[in-house]
């Protein structure tokens, strides 16, 4: 979408307001879909919910690629937003629930690596399709995601269901079979099964393959009400930590950088569309490389350390962008160094985001929520994620026009200072801890 926006504005003669509404609309549609996704994954399972997401991606991408009018483009974008919501909720939950404790950080970071690889492929596609005609180029940019959507649909038909969801349905025998496939040893599989049964309320020594569980447990009924109205102090701290992570992920400026980077680069003097597309490819490379590195660091150094290091980097790079752009905007002549410096600092920002805050937000929020609340609680997190994304994306152009481009990045730097304080004060370390031990972790003073 970031590349297509330039050409949509020219081809469909849209205003800046319409562009802001377009980029925000998919996130608006994701708000109710996020809550529905959590309940859906509790009701039909994690695997089939991902399949629903792939269908939404397919339909929405095809419609956007066809769109002859702005209104049809908006409808397709809304359908994609539903797919995004379903995927953002259930992919981390699924990854967390099938992963052994020793490598949970690594495996639960895979969706983030895949997401960043998708960004890179999107940027590369934008660079290639930019060479096509105006009417065809941007439509190809928006239609090509239909291809991986079909692949995702086929692959998910072959994969196993989450063992924790199976136990919630009373299907203990099926859960045991899955755990034997995804655990390092048979002993580890049996230990994980005992812990899951205990979390669901099934006798750990029960040897039955099918156990009766209440409808409340199997369908997630009443989970949100309990989470907000009857939560214990540790659960309230867990919810605060998870929601706070998602809020700071978006209001810290990452959403604006990813979508509006061509406008930022234009401000420094890069006006050639092909060069703008090529500059965004570098952002994609940075995201993939450093998210790949982050996968190996999460289980070694811990989630908390990565958040603090990453947060410091975000503050410094946002200040750097603010200073550079302020100098450019107050300069009467063209500054030949400005475009190179801003591009490099932007790549550095993306690197710091990809190595810590971005992957850890999803790993941490999906692993700390107790089993009964995990899917729907993460749905709440995604709602916050989407609301803050909408606020940033639909106001970015208006704000930078009011306080200058440099000013908005100084604002983002201040937000990231607050985020650092939040990470340090409210987030204990979760590395190496069982999913079933998280309430105890937040009930004490461990860090």
Automatic annotation (TrEMBL):
Q: Return the protein name.
A: Major facilitator superfamily (MFS) profile domain-containing protein
Q: Which UniProt keywords apply?
A: Membrane, Sugar transport, Symport, Transmembrane, Transmembrane helix, Transport
- Where, per UniProt, does this protein localize? Membrane
Q: Which residues form the Major facilitator superfamily (MFS) profile domain?
A: 1-431
> What kind of membrane protein is this, topologically?
Multi-pass membrane protein
**Pfam families for this protein:** Sugar_tr
SUPFAM superfamilies, per the entry: MFS general substrate transporter
User: What superkingdom does the record give?
Assistant: Eukaryota
Looking at the UniProt entry, the stretches that span the membrane are 48-66, 72-94, 106-129, 141-160, 238-261, 276-298, 305-328, 340-365, 377-397, 403-424
Q: Which PANTHER family match?
A: POLYOL_MONOSACCHARIDE TRANSPORTER 1, SOLUTE CARRIER FAMILY 2, FACILITATED GLUCOSE TRANSPORTER
Q: Which GO terms describe its cellular component?
A: membrane
Query: What taxonomic lineage is listed for the species of origin?
Result: Eukaryota, Viridiplantae, Streptophyta, Embryophyta, Tracheophyta
Enumerate the GO terms in the molecular function aspect.
symporter activity
- Tell me its family: Belongs to the major facilitator superfamily. Sugar transporter (TC 2.A.1.1) family.
State if Ribonucleoprotein is listed as a keyword: no
